[in-house]
Write a structure and sequence with these properties.
This protein is an alpha/beta fold. The chain is built from 13 helices and six strands.
Length: 261
């Protein structure tokens, strides 16, 4: 267990929100994740010329996108030279436009149950048997071929938060630090969240907006639901990594030796 809570390192990009390097986070046995290998982010659509140059300077080999086809078509990632782009949706590809915006969400769901129903179900259901996370870890467990890697969704908080949790578990980071890093999105996305809340002020009454705000901000209980779902299916994290991702003890050791110092 860490004595001081730690998070990934935020990098200040002009056109990309919530861009972070997992480097610098420590594991339970005192090792440290190397800088420049594993990144998490919101979508890369608005990356400036300088941001794109940073990706090149970082030597990014892989961009792994959790979004649906519609999300990616609406806000496409930049095409960068010598980068392998993989988009494998975490959520089911329906081909429909439902709940692709908050306005759609409120037309179809009860806003005051958003936090307790929708996000709870999301975090509980996604970690097990999810093809997107299986493909993510298929790339991560071959680090020499695929890292440095950027994983991202739209805001870089929910889907990317679960993907980051899986990576950090594989590397041996303490659960308390995984949660702290997850919650760090609330800090880095404060302005983004406020824009969302402001847009909703004219669409829903205050009696619905306030519960939405509370539920929409990331909470420890959300990621804990994912962790509990894992341990409800598997006796140990080691079994989870082996059965879900083919990360055996030997492969995990090789991955850790590559990513840790």
């Amino acid at each position: 267990m860490s004595n001081v809570m730690q998070t990934s390192q935020a990098l200040n990009l002009a056109g990309v929100h919530n861009f972070r390097d997992l480097g610098g986070m420590k594991t339970t046995n005192g090792r440290t994740i190397k800088h420049g290998l594993l990144f998490r982010s919101a979508d890369l659509t608005d990356a400036t010329t300088e941001d794109k140059q940073l990706f090149q300077d970082l030597g990014i080999r892989t961009i792994f996108d959790y979004r649906t086809a519609q999300e990616a078509n609406d806000r496409p990632d930049p095409q960068l030279p010598n980068v392998n782009y993989h988009r494998v949706a975490v959520n089911k590809e329906t081909g429909e436009a439902s709940c692709q915006s908050l306005e759609d969400l409120f037309a179809k769901e009860q806003p005051d149950s958003f936090g307790t129903d929708l996000l709870v179900a999301l975090y509980h259901n996604l970690p097990i048997g999810n093809y997107s996370f299986q493909q993510l870890m298929a790339h991560v467990k071959q680090p020499a071929d695929n890292l440095p890697l950027i994983q991202h969704c739209a805001g870089g908080r929910d889907r990317t938060g679960i993907g980051t949790m899986i990576i950090l578990l594989a590397l041996g980071v303490a659960w308390e630090d995984i949660v702290e890093d997850f919650l760090y999105s609330n800090v880095l996305l404060e302005d983004y969240h406020q824009q969302i809340f402001t847009q909703l002020e004219d669409k829903i009454p205050p009696s619905q907006l306030e519960p939405f705000k509370k539920g929409f901000l990331l909470q420890e209980q959300y990621l804990t639901l994912s962790y509990q779902a894992i341990l409800a299916h598997y006796a140990t994290i080691e079994e989870f990594l082996t059965q879900e991702y083919g990360i055996t003890a030997d492969i995990r050791m090789t991955l850790q030796d590559y990513c840790l110092e």
